[in-house]
Write a structure and sequence with these properties.
With 147 residues, the chain is an all-alpha fold. The chain has 5 helices and 2 strands. Strands 1-2 form a two-stranded antiparallel sheet.
Length: 147
């Protein structure tokens, strides 16, 4: 689905943060020894969504919403699978997590790029959220190295 309006982008932010949060919740339930790490990702996902939405709603006007579009932002480019499967190993699931994080991070960087001409606060929020994903990817890599 092509994302054209900021409202559509906000809906997709809710989807990717919610879907990946649910995935990490399932991993926390499945791997109690890693519960703290995975639950911290769930918590951060909720913060990410709230941060982006608060930033957007704090600066947006009807004029900007009516005159701005995200040309070239397509959800198909950022979709990911969150099936934690009963037969998957921790290593396989962490690799899946890394793929999810790459896609979400790419979405936020692209959304930031496309919203640069819109206003300063929104692309800054997208970039900051994308950069936080890098920290998460490093934590996931650490889990993978131990698995």
């Amino acid at each position: 689905m092509k994302l054209v309006t900021m409202a559509a982008v906000m809906s997709f932010v809710t989807k990717i943060e919610g879907d990946s949060g649910k995935f990490y919740q399932e991993l926390a339930d499945k791997y109690p020894e890693m519960e703290e790490a995975f639950l911290s990702f769930v918590k951060q996902n909720k913060k990410n969504e709230k941060f982006i939405k608060q930033t957007y709603f704090g600066v947006i006007t009807d004029t900007i919403e009516a005159c701005y579009s995200f040309e070239g932002l397509d959800t198909d480019d950022y979709e990911f699978d969150t099936d934690s499967g009963s037969g998957s190993t921790l290593a396989n699931l962490v690799n899946t997590s890394l793929t999810i994080e790459d896609k979400i991070q790419a979405f936020y960087f692209r959304a930031a790029e496309l919203s640069n001409s819109m206003m300063a606060d929104v692309p800054r929020a997208f970039k900051k959220t994308a950069q936080k994903r890098e920290d998460r990817k490093q934590k996931l890599q650490s889990i993978l190295d131990k698995a």
